[in-house]
């Protein structure tokens, strides 16, 4: 990436080109697990960036709330939703409702974020609210980040729950065989097998609370390819039993009513694009999306592996789970239904720019989006001449009408009398 920057940016501008580094949920998890290790990673990366010929501005771990907000800024900036116009164009702009913003749905490996403007946002949960003033307009934004609910960590959570449900105990150790240390998993294709080291598995902050004494050191996962059972297992990740607010997403977190369109990017897009479910500009219906994922999960592993030889087996094997998880997260977690499913647009790029939090991060740090509306540019020479001609014609018409009104022919005056 630095080498590409060196090639693209003229060498004369290297020293004045700022470089920022923001780390997200993976580093937030590492910091929870080992603060000194996280500090060493940031320090090492910082040293590398300082050695580059650019103006390094620092590296830090951003919060989940920031990650959600920057994603929201990115997609609305690229869609032109923040652009303000002055004069008579402002009236047309408001009539077309072009100033409405889109919500942002972000899914990574370790966390997921939902961010949007809601007219029904209450003061119930102020910690999930952010305020922005952009181009002279105020935005009250709802945002929340769910750590451990990215697609990779969600899979780890599901496996940990499956292990918790096993009935084996340490007394079985001497009778343990490879066969009874296996775990059937409906979220992997039939015929697929994977080995997991138990000691590594529970070191993760997302699974450490589910640690269980097991009589074996390795777990053998055997795929079943059953979408319905997979969904049942995934839904157990979302605690919907307790909501201290008027409405919630899951785990007791406040969620106002959904509003407007949503751009879903990062892993939301990558997974759905692989499954050929990113149809735009007309999103597919929810039942079509569900049936496609169900059919994919039902395919035998050998068939899938043959059809997608160019994809690494680890990633390929997890598309069934990831597709099912995305559906469950959007439906059970974020409360999308078949009635508003088509509000979701899976976005990889907007124009030539990637959809994601990084552009919003840069825009915020460089203050490229002003709080107040900038003064409108002066009229071009052609526009100025045209406006003057129009005003002159209007003035001449008014004067001519006035002259005719006060200098009517006598015959007309007599007829009127």
Keywords:
417 residues; alpha/beta; Nucleotidyltransferase, domain 5; 4 domains; six-stranded mixed beta sheet; three-stranded mixed beta sheet
Our Rg estimate from Cα atoms comes to: 29 Å
Oligomer: single chain
The assigned CATH architecture of the largest domain is: 2-Layer Sandwich
Quick one: how many beta strands? 13
Mean pLDDT figure: 84
How would you name the CATH homologous superfamily of the largest domain?
A: Exopolyphosphatase. Domain 2
Order of helices and strands: HEHHEHHEEEEHEEHEHEHHHHHEEEHHH
- Estimate what percentage of residues fall within beta strands: 15-25%
**Helical residue percent?**
40-55%
What would CATH call the class of the largest domain?
Alpha Beta
Q: Largest beta sheet, briefly? A: 6 strands, mixed
Question: What count of domains describes the coordinates?
Answer: 4
Uncertain parts? 85-99, 169-179
Question: What does the overall shape look like?
Answer: globular
């Amino acid at each position: 990436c630095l080498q590409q920057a060196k090639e693209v940016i003229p060498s004369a501008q290297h020293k004045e080109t700022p470089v920022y580094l923001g780390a997200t949920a993976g580093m937030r998890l590492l910091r929870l697990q080992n603060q000194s290790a996280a500090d060493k990673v940031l320090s090492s990366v910082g040293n590398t960036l300082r050695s580059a010929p650019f103006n390094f501005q620092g590296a830090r771990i951003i919060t989940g709330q920031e990650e959600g907000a920057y994603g929201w800024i990115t997609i609305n900036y690229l869609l032109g939703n923040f652009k303000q116009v002055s004069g008579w164009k402002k009236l047309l702009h408001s009539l077309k409702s072009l100033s409405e913003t889109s919500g942002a749905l972000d899914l990574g490996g370790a966390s997921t974020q939902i961010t949007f403007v809601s007219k029904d946002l209450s003061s119930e949960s102020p910690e999930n609210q952010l305020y922005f003033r952009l181009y002279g307009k105020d935005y009250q934004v709802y945002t929340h980040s769910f750590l451990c609910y990215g697609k990779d960590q969600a899979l780890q959570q599901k496996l940990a729950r499956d292990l918790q449900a096993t009935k084996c105990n340490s007394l079985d150790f001497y009778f343990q065989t490879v066969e009874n240390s296996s775990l059937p998993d409906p979220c992997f294709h039939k015929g697929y097998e994977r080995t997991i080291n138990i000691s590594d598995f529970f070191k993760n902050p997302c699974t450490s609370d589910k640690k269980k004494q097991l009589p074996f050191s390795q777990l053998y996962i055997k795929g079943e390819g059953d979408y319905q059972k997979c969904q049942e297992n995934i839904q157990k990740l979302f605690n919907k039993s307790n909501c201290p607010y008027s409405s919630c997403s899951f785990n007791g977190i406040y969620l106002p009513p959904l509003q407007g369109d949503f751009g879903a990017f990062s892993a939301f897009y990558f997974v759905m694009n692989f499954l050929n479910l990113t149809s735009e500009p007309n999103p597919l219906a929810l039942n079509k999306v569900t049936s496609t994922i169900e059919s994919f999960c039902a395919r035998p592993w050998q068939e899938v592996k043959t059809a997608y030889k160019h994809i690494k087996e680890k990633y390929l094997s997890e598309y069934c789970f990831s597709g099912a998880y995305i559906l469950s997260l959007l439906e059970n977690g974020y409360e999308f239904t078949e009635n508003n499913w088509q509000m979701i647009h899976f976005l990889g790029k907007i124009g030539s720019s990637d959809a994601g939090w990084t552009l919003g991060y840069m825009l915020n740090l460089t203050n490229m989006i002003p709080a107040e509306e900038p003064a409108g540019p002066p009229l071009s020479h052609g526009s100025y001449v045209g406006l003057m001609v129009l005003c002159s014609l209007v003035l001449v018409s008014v004067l001519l009408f006035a002259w005719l009104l006060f200098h009517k022919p006598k015959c007309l005056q007599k007829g009127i009398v």
